[in-house]
Write a structure and sequence with these properties.
The protein has 422 residues and is an alpha+beta fold. It has 14 helices and 23 strands. α12 links the parallel β21 and β22. The termini are close together. The structure holds uridine-diphosphate-N-acetylglucosamine. Uridine-diphosphate-N-acetylglucosamine binds next to α1, α5 and α6.
Amino acid sequence: MDKFIVMGGARLTGEISVSGAKNAILPIMAASLLTAGKSTLFNIPIIKDVLVMQKVMEYLGAKVSITGNVMYIDSDGVEPREIGENLMRQLRASNLVIGSLLSRFRKIKVAFPGGCNIGSRPMDLHMKGLAALGTKITERYGFIEAEATNLHGAEIHLDFPSVGATENLMMAATLAEGTTIIRNAAKEPEIVDLQNYLNGLGARVKGAGLDTIKIEGVKKLGSVEHTIIPDRIEAGTHLVAAAITGGDVLVTDIIPDHLEPVIAKLKEAEVKITRYNESVRVVAPGRVKAVDFKTMPYPGFPTDMQPQLMALLTIADGTSVVAESIFENRFKHIDELRRMGASIKLEGKVAIIKGVPTLSGAFVEATDLRAGAALVLAGLAAEDATVIENVEYIDRGYERLESKYNALGARIMRVNNSRNGS
Ligand code: UD1
């Protein structure tokens, strides 16, 4: 396990480019299993989660290769092989192959993906939707077995706009007989990217980005070239990095509209933000102002940015209240931030953060991807050195985060634990 040593106190300045979106490429890779054709994906992020998804797809018989930031997928040889616990547990998003494999082969067996560090993450909404499409589902011995001899269109109303359930159902409905309507669908930009990819393959999907998505089933799909949208969470993390270090940074290669919920909160905290077509400039104020926020499905404030913004609020002027409404267990970074001198009280799903003038470096642990990012941000602002263990979590979703920040003036060192014998 690698660790980061972050020397705090450097002001970040300059330009930083954002990679393709993790949460767009993972469902799109899963969707590429729908066709016997080829997919060429541009602007892919080279991150751990993508490489694990590649393993899942190769296990199923897909040919996947990566050159620079382009991925080539040939799904001709794919077979609906049983996927065991070992692969399914490595990556929560592996559950997205259920919709595509079921649609193409009408039969699948996969190990239950299980929970993760931020919450229990059940699959009931996915299963209810697939059942409405005519799938017989059995859950036993830790496996989900699903069979759909007559996969057909249906009207589905999701109890909650789950991102994964919306994506799985879009994929399952693509090759089903007839029309499917998904109401109360997730509206995240990554859902729109999936729709664009599917339609590029020859699917007939409409409405992504709105409450209701309509899919008219087609018999067969072809090949496609598609560019992955920029990662709005990576971009949001960089906005906070500039704000927390008193910096002046231009965040490039993004779609500023996708960042609006984050930009709005930062502006409220008195961070100066200028929007351009495909970039945003952030200029930090002397000290940010405390703000309250609650995580919500898109276009609300993203749960994937909650830990990072909280890191900033630990040194804000005043007291902030943060409510987490998406995941029940997404506050593990609080204990770590407290080690660095933050004053945070947790009352159920609500954190009360009393801003302190400075944080101080400490030994901390990344407990999940975004918690890890929050600790890097806190470390950049802290006095002295912060040592962050379990950097692998950060590598799951950020491409060379330390190199990107070092190019802006940060001082982050990656240390390989095994090499140092510790
Ligand atoms: C996706 C994102 C993740 C983000 C999350 C919420 C990917 C690969 N991951 O995860 O980064 O944090 O959206 O924006 O895109 N739920 C149920 N039953 C279900 C499905 C979900 O109760 O069948 C609940 C979950 O437990 C959670 C909430 O719904 O509390 C949101 O989950 P969901 O939107 O499905 O998130 P993911 O697709 O897993």
